[in-house]
Amino acid sequence: MPDEFIYDLGETQDNVSRRGSSRDLSLQPKKNIVLVSHGRPPWYGEDGQRICDAFVIGVAGGSASGKTHVAREIVRNLGSIPTVIILSQDSFYKYHNEEELALAHANMLDFDHPDALDMPLFASCLSDLKACKQSNIPVYSFAEHQRLKETKYLYGATIIIAEGIMALVDPALRALYDLKVFVQCDSDLMLARRIKRDVKERGRDVHGILDQYLRYVKPSYDNFVRPTATHADIIVPGSNNAVAIDLICTHIRSQLQERTNRFRQKMAIPHLYLTTGSGSGASTPPESRLEDLDLTVLPDTPQLKGIFTILRSKETSRQDFIFFVDRLSTILVEFALQLLPYVPKVVVTPVGVEAHGKKLGAQMVCGVSILRSGGALERGFRRVINDVPIGSLLVQSDATSGEPMLLQTMLPVCVRLRNLAQDSWVFLLDAQIGTGAAAFMSIRILLDHGVREDHIVFVTFLVARGGGVSVLRRAFPGVKIVCGAVDEIMKEGWLEGYKGEGNPEGKGRKCWVMQPGMGQIGDRYYL
């Protein structure tokens, strides 16, 4: 698989970012795997609401039957696909007390009974991921026979493969699967694989492995696991299963194709592409009036005109460009602070007199920049709000379709945890709103995490009145948008030197440029 970026759920995203290297799927030491290769395409419609769920596959079978191998082979054979998660049911073993721990270390605790697994938690996490929300996956240590206190944040999957011996036992889990697979394998082969795995990976002796197998594993397979094959849509052999995996991958590709949603072109210049009404009476909407967009625009002062004159000029040196971008971002964030809630506060001055004032009423405030150009506002943001956590979203255009693709999320803790997100205020930072595609996706991501729409403040240098901001406004009316200036025109064109989809003349991929604009702000700021 070309250009993949793989990490397992035993690592934090921070560690992965620092390491920055790719590894082959077959070398992964743990069953929980996230593959980020081609990003997450839009999963929502023009109204901002979710129109498709993640595609969920349940893979069941006996212990050491080859479930994880089948899951990895599905991923490998799919090729160029969006974000995929392989989620192991082994992470959802219940927390054990001291007595149960003693039995576990003596190989006397039954880990192969359905009651050993926290099925409601597994179903809850899987339901969140399927509904395009974030989830926090438990971490289980086989060496300690215990669920650890830490959890692993997970978000943004297009395909989820849930594998485990009891993956098809619970009706609540079966209801979540779009495709149910059972891996059938010879009992002798499963036992041989289990001995080899437990000796090598879990440090156990052969006598204990055999005793546990005869006491718990084999009876559980006969009583609970094998009967679930009747619920499967397809039964895959535990070895020599290339044909079955190819059939599964063909079905998955067709399902993903049906869920494809492309509307960036419609957003880019909405008065040319989008229609109002329905049926034969549909009509082309007029260009949005500035007053209808409900934008908070900086006062048009001589100082602001001078800053924008410098930033728009292609003759401006990089050093001057960085200086005035930082200056403008500071002014913008200071202006945007008025949109946060404030509550009355009484203080006593140094001369002993009470003074009535205001204090910030927001419990948590953070920033999220849309990379790369959104990073140009971070320095000004930090200057205005001291010690503020800042996260990032990597949203880039697909090389062929031009649609936004979510490649990575690095969000502050107050956004990753849903119980905190609903009380958090988020400053979303990007250099401009042109087509609005990246802004649209970023707002949808924050809403998926539980951030309230009216708690999002979008701070940007420029907004194109004729671009996607009108669609953005209709979809998310509660979001507050603060900008430095409003440009009138979005011009349709082609990227030179790129032979894109649907361009037999080789003119390149279609793009949309804001005029007069400030050029490629990220390139001018960082390069």
Structural commentary:
This protein is α/β, with parallel strands linked by helices and 527 residues long. Helices cover 33% and strands 24% of the residues. The chain is built from 18 helices and 21 strands. Strands 10, 13, 14, 15, 16, 17, 18 and 19 form an 8-stranded mixed β-sheet that branches. Helix 11 crosses helix 12 (318-336). One of its GO terms (biological process) is CTP salvage.
Please give the count of helices. 18
In the residues, how many domains can be counted? 2
Find the CATH superfamily of the largest domain: P-loop containing nucleotide triphosphate hydrolases
Largest sheet: 8 strands, mixed
Compute the separation of the termini in Å: 30 Å
In percent terms, what proportion of residues is strand? 15-25%
Morphology call: elongated
Structural class by SSE content: alpha/beta
User: How many β-strand stretches?
Assistant: 21
Shape-level CATH architecture of the largest domain: 3-Layer(aba) Sandwich
CATH topology of the largest domain: Rossmann fold
Alpha carbon gyration radius: 27 Å
The whole-number mean of residue pLDDT values reads 83
